[in-house]
Amino acid sequence: MKSIRRHLTTGLLLSFAALWCAGAVVLYLSTRAVLLAEFDATLAAKARGLASLTEVEGSKVIIEDAGPSLPIHNAARASDIFQIWLDDGTIVAASPSLKNHPLPRPPGLAEQPRFWNLPLPDGSSGRAIGVRFTPRLDPDVPAPAGGAKRVEVTLVVASSRVNLDRALHAILAVLVGGAVLLLAAAAIAIRRVVRSGLAPVNLIAEQAAAIEAHSLGKRFPADAMPAELHPICKRLNDLLARLEASFDRERRFNANVAHELRTPIAELRTLAEVNLQWPEDAAATRQAFQEALQIALQMETLVTSLLAIVRCESGKQPLNREPVALAGLIETIWQPLAVRAAAKQFAVRVDLDRACQLHTDRAMLQSIVTNLLANAVAHTPPRGTVHIRLQQTVGEFTFTVANTTDNLTAQDIPHLFERFWRKDPARSDSQHSGLGLAVAQTFAQALGLRLGAQLIAADTLTLELAGPSLSHELPASVQPG
Amino acid sequence: MKLLLIEDSLRLQQSLGRALRHAGCAVDITGDGNEGFWYAANNDYDVIVLDLMLPGLDGLTLLQRLRAQGKTGHVLILTAKDTVEDRVRGLNCGADDYLVKPFALAELLARVQSLGRRSHGRKTSRLVIGSLEIDLLARRVMSRGQPVELSPREYRLLEFLTLRRGELVSRADIEAHIYDSEVEPMSNVVDSAVCMLRKKISAPGQPPLLHTRRGLGYVLDDNAPA
């Protein structure tokens, strides 16, 4: 599994090591270059000194003896050696230590000095400078007949570089040793820094691990978090809020299901137990059976509605689309309800566009319309008004049921389509389970229709079903018959 | 035992009312929270069977208000709310018992009887007074080993007096606990019921158990001075 801590620690450590190595190489090379330049400058000075002492005396090339102060001329010092050749390869002068091991003559030398490394006669490593030059004429010696001959000689001066190499090795050892120590220290420091930097992430992880279904009200302290984690905390808090709302809905739903099912079961069981324990006459027994039937029907309606919602939500509700004349459907459904509306002395107005046709599932549309109309009849106060209207524009229909209401508020409207929602928290009305509008909306969504509600002027509830309608002529594929 | 049933389901009201009356309780019934509170606040019920989701005033608020008024009658919550939180909340609000719907009728009756006994400080369901033996659970009365046939109301009266044995019980107390609020007892209803009960439980050669304190009430005891 990927670990940010491991990734950061390894990355930082490798970067630190790479930077240190690069720095060490640059430092070593630049120090080496400086030391070599100094070494070469010293060699060049020695060569220049030797060249200035080299003279042509008559027909010979000699080195003027400047005494023991001239290091190059000190035969005892094997660390500094020199050798001078004429152009014909004749060695005209050399350090005493080269008596038995003359230096090979370097080819291709010019007036510009050249440096190179070479093994010294004593086996140690050394560095040499080679240069071609024309020795000056000794003014104290008369020139031979025919004039003094100008000759060019090759001078090589070499010095032991043991001390230089020792110094370079010491620097290299310090750099490598320092690298090991610094990397070890950096590993510890980086580990601590990364751990402290990631502490808020661990805190979030711990808090997240502590959140369970019953503690969804907890929130991450977004303001106390580093700026990088702030948006994550905010998103997590948003997610928790949605989860909490969803769990609350689920809890309410479960509690409502429990109530809606437990109460009729309790009624049925008590009815049966009482009549078994204290049987009465035939009429009372018949009445008890009728009660039992009513309870069973009530439970059947509840379970059927719930199953319909679940089937729809899981996409298992088959849709048998066919052309449906909506006005006719509404009238058929309204007919029995109109009797109840009249009994409650409603002022009813029905405006239906008879040309409106839908291509939809007749049974599901029937269920939607039934629920909307039955809702109006059940909840309109006596002597209230009910307005049923079906309108059609090009390709769109709107079916509206508006009724007066005396107990709804704007806060209730968002809950109208919630499963089992009832205005009365006591849920005393055993005739209505609070599933009708939930079923209507679930069916509407399955049919691609829109069902909404609004409260107009505080006393009129308007339920509106809208969606695509067939235009004046049905498409050939859906022509009836 | 006088019992108040506050339940908004009409079907449960009817079935439970019938069962509780058969079990010897004088039952008042209402389906509204506010009305239930009025009944409970103005009467002395031995047991109140209380639904939680009620129109008008919810059961828990009703219970809290009753307890705040100092009413100590035993309350059994009978509800569809079944979570542990619901039960704990109900009991913490002052309920004495909690039963979830659906329920076994026998269990409800047993719990109601148990609460009724508790309200009179009795733990046993078998009481013996002199030669009289009363089984509160079986609702059976024996006198010297022979069964005594009593009408439901006579049994309720005997049970009430037995639970208060040795105490002076006024006629008003009897009216309040034996007759539900739908019955308007005439003053001589209690007297004649007591008279009939006295006849049925008296055994020849045994001292009388039910004594009248003129102008005060009645005492059921096997060694009370006549």
Explain what this protein looks like in three dimensions:
The complex is a heterodimer of chains A (481) and B (226). The radius of gyration of chain A is 54 Å and the shape is rod-shaped. Chain A has helices at residues 4-53, 162-197, 199-210, 230-277, 282-313, 326-343, 362-379, 436-446; strands spanning 54-57, 60-63, 80-86, 91-94, 114-119, 125-133, 136-137, 153-160, 321-325, 347-352, 357-361, 385-393, 396-404, 450-456, 460-468. Chain A is of the alpha+beta class and 481 residues long. Chain B is an alpha/beta fold and 226 residues long. Chain B has helices at 10-22, 33-42, 59-68, 84-92, 105-119, 152-163, 171-178, 187-201; strands at residues 2-6, 26-30, 47-50, 74-79, 97-100, 126-129, 132-135, 140-143, 146-147, 210-213, 217-220. Chain B has a 5-stranded parallel sheet, sandwiched between helices. Chain B starts with a strand and ends in a 6-residue tail after the last strand. The relative contact order of chain B is 0.12. Chain A binds chain B through residues 255, 258-259, 262-263, 265-271, 273-274, 277-278, 291, 295, 424-428, 430, and chain B through 8-12, 15-16, 18-19, 22, 31, 33, 53-56, 58, 80-83, 100-106.
Quick recap:
Chain A has 481 residues and is of the alpha+beta class. Chain A is built from 8 helices and 15 strands.
Regions with little confidence, pLDDT below 50 for 5+ residues of chain B: none
Q: Architecture of the largest domain in chain A in CATH? A: 2-Layer Sandwich
SSE topology string of chain A: HEEEEEEEEHHHHEHEEHEEHEE
CATH class of the largest domain in chain B: Alpha Beta
Helix content of chain A: 40-55%
Strand content of chain B: 15-25%
Q: Helical stretch count of chain A?
A: 8
List the helices and strands and how they pair.
The complex is a heterodimer of chains A (481) and B (226).
Chain A (H helix, E strand, L loop, with lengths): L3 H50 E4 L2 E4 L16 E7 L4 E4 L19 E6 L5 E9 L2 E2 L15 E8 L1 H36 L1 H12 L19 H48 L4 H32 L7 E5 H18 L3 E6 L4 E5 H18 L5 E9 L2 E9 L31 H11 L3 E7 L3 E9 L13
Parallel strand pairs in A: 1-7, 10-12
Antiparallel strand pairs in A: 1-2, 3-4, 3-8, 5-6, 6-8, 9-11, 12-13, 13-15, 14-15
Chain B lengths: L1 E5 L3 H13 L3 E5 L2 H10 L4 E4 L8 H10 L5 E6 L4 H9 L4 E4 L4 H15 L6 E4 L2 E4 L4 E4 L2 E2 L4 H12 L7 H8 L8 H15 L8 E4 L3 E4 L6
Parallel strand pairs in B: 1-2, 1-3, 3-4, 4-5
Antiparallel strand pairs in B: 6-7, 7-8, 8-9, 10-11
Helix pairs in contact in B: 2-3, 6-8
